[in-house]
Amino acid sequence: MRAGESLRLFRSRAGLTTREVAEFSQRIAQREGNDELSISHARMIQIENDASTPSVHKLFSLSIIYGVSFNEMVSLYVDLTSVVKHGLELGLSNTRLASSAIPQEAQRVRFPVRFDPAFKADDTNLLSRMVQEWGEVPVGWLPGLNVRNVKYGFIGLRDYTMSPLLRPGSFVQIEEQKAPTESAEPVGYRSEFDRPIWFLELRVGYVCSWCEFRRDKILSVPHPLSRCRTREFAARDVTVVGRVTAVAARLVNNADAARSATPPTQS
After folding, report:
1. I want to staple 239 with a disulfide (CB 3.0 to 4.6 A). Which of 23, 60, 90, 201 is the partner?
2. Nearest to residue 170, comparing CAs of 182, 158, 180, 178?
3. Residue 102 to residues 59, 88, 89, 146, 213: CA-CA distances in angstroms?
4. pLDDT for position 211
5. Shared domain check, 244 and 123
6. Could you give the number of structural domains in the chain?
């Protein structure tokens, strides 16, 4: 539906004529002391015929008159749901705060609403194996999340294999990739962040770690600070789910947050 048609529908539902809308907008403009909030009868006809685009001031008046949220009015002309997407894709070089003021009613994604009662949070697992029921949940910051098409993993609460790089309780995004072939020359990485992290499915669970792929075996290499040991698996017993490409994790647990929020006592 065109923007003008939607505005005409809002006006019809409110039981108003274009002249009445013009009169109400003049009252708003007078009370606010801003003539930009006023909409003439002729301008209303142009707007509903898509011959004119209303300013934010006029959309403000129309949202009041029709009882429709301002965000919904603006969304008739621009896609507000793409705010976060474009902000991320611009690749701005400076660190900054990013506002999450996105119309929640326009953000509906597939998200888990009920987990399998048999799921144990201590163990690393695929998110799809943990979820018993999916629903439509408004999540303003996750417009691109679609766990039906992209694999996500959960790092078990007792899995310290990649800690502190991947903390227990983290969610990781997994991109399907084939395991690399064995190379005679060792691969050099500039830092631990450049080294690929792999998500493996075993016969009795999952492993998320750095890996070394040999001809007939796979080595699971833990983070050196984790105090976990390197594990060796027969290649035939392992399925490479994919490579970890993103992670979401708490940096401070609830107990640490409570302690940091309490000012130290002075003696």
Report:
1. 201
2. 158
3. 17, 14, 17, 18, 44
4. 93
5. yes
6. 2
Beta carbons within 8 Å of 30's beta carbon, 6+ residues apart: none
Tell me whether residue 80 is in a domain. no
Model confidence band, residue 254 (pLDDT cutoffs 50, 70, 90): low
Q: Nearest CA to 131 among 178, 171, 174, 176?
A: 171
Model confidence pLDDT, tens digit, residues 157-210: 889 999 999 998 888 889 888 888 765 455 678 888 889 999 999 988 899 999
pLDDT at 131: 64
- 97 occurs within a structural domain: no
Range of the domain at 45: 3-74
70 and 135 together in one domain: no
pTM, entire model: 0.52
- Tokens (6 digits) for 263: 């000012």
Q: Residue 65: CB partners within 8 Å, gap ≥ 6?
A: 14, 16, 21, 24, 25, 28
What confidence tens digit (pLDDT) does each residue in 143-160 have?
A: 445 554 568 888 888 899
